[in-house]
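Our collaborator T.R. sent over the components below with a one-line note: 'Predict the complex.' Nothing else. No constraints on interfaces, no templates requested, no preferences about which chain binds where. So this is a plain run: every listed entity goes in together, and whatever single assembly comes back becomes the starting point for the next discussion.
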Amino acid sequence: MATAVDIDVTIVRNPASGEEVGRVPRGGAADAAEAVARAQDGFPGWWDTPAAKRGAIVRAGAEAVLAQRDELALQLTLEQGKPLREARIEITRFVHTLEHYAGLAKNLRGAYVPNLDVRTHGLVLKRPLGVVVAIVPWNFPTTLLGNKLGPALVCGNVVVAKPAETTPLTTLRIAEIMGEHGLPEDVFQVVTGKGSVLGEALVTDPRVAKVAFTGSTPVGKHVAELAARGVKRVTLELGGSDPMIVLDDSDVDAAVSAASVGRFFNCGQACLAVKRLYLHEQIADQFVEKLLEKVRKLRVGAGTAEGTTIGPLHSEEQRTTLEDQVDSTLERGGELLAGGRRPDGEEYASGWFYEPTLILEPSHDSKLAMEEVFGPALPIWRIGGLEEGIARANASEFGLGSSIWTRDLTAATLAAEKLEAGYTWINSAQIIYDELPFGGFGESGVGKEHGNEALDYYQESKAVVVKQSPR
Ligand code: NAP
Ligand code: MG
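Returned assembly:
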């Protein structure tokens, strides 16, 4: 029987143990409407605040968050599952992104167009959109919030954020800290509840000007459809299945490290994880041997345990999906080189753990090749050369990130041009930079986060024609 607790409260649980780590309100349509109304009230004042001051307030909030990094990282590990070291990196990333946009606040610019006609000049004003709804998934709850919060606030918008139902705690604490350090409460609010209820109420509220969504491709499409009914602005950062191509003249050791970190960071639950590995046949055997050595050294455990390099998957649903993807792929071929199972042992009994998994030469139309794999399982194929690698890499509905490893400048630049993805790393681990625009091609999304480009997605251009009367 449903109790009051079931109806009004979400219990947040530690993915490593199933233990309760907190409770938050399970908000509904009325909570969405209230938050949007407050945001709307806060908008004129924030818009009128000088941009430099907005930047200073965002920076002060970021610094306060950094000062509490260890406390926040522990909270993040407890609700999300990632190792503490990775949680600290995530909080630091959040801070860097806010600082980056705080630095751009004084550089917001419009345009002046002289002599459109006789005594007639043009202005291009830039104005904020208004109430922005930020919907964020559980895999990087704070980084992915920061990507939206930084540019939105600096441009003069007000933000209502909805974290994933399973990872609200760190986000709530961040809002509290920023509120204590000068950010007006109605300028940045966090509401908690189910995406299908609270999220939809926010997306369909006519007072909301923009939805900035990060999550899965199916939910993103649905959110875009809902937003389209109100002609709302939308950015979508969706799923990925990033290919990594390694040619025979590459720095193999560096590429092995990048493949290992790229696939197993955050237990493989990253949009930009290395999800398909294509190795030139000349180096494939030595590459796989070195990668296996690295994988054997990974330590699966609770994110809070000393020495853990791979935490649990975030939820039972994630593990069930991964197990189906791995098992169904192996039924159709491929050689299991490592993992493919849950780890044995008492310490793993109550969490969503899974061993790091490598599979050599699975079918090219297996689930590991075709679907987004959000867990620690890496399919590996041999290729004859660059052309085959690019063709295989592009045989995906996704187009988020990609990487090419080679010392051949022609091959590298060709790959950068031809890979159907919003990011291509050349001889570089798949790391995101605030300075560069990030956003997917194809079914991986619409619009950009990061870079100066992100500012365009939080402002509207308005044309003004100025005609001078004759004197
Ligand atoms: P998800 O199921 O799509 O959920 C994402 C967010 O949307 C959550 O806050 C969720 O709320 C909310 N939501 C669910 N249904 C909704 C609806 N009908 N209306 C409004 N909001 C709704 O994604 P996920 O499985 O949690 O996250 C993993 C996915 O995110 C992967 O596909 C990954 O590739 C993608 N991702 C993309 C990027 C990128 O930048 N491109 C970065 C990271 C992750 P509840 O969870 O509370 O229901
Ligand atoms: Mg989901």
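Summary for T.R.: Residues 216 surround magnesium ion (ligand 2) (CB under 6 Å).
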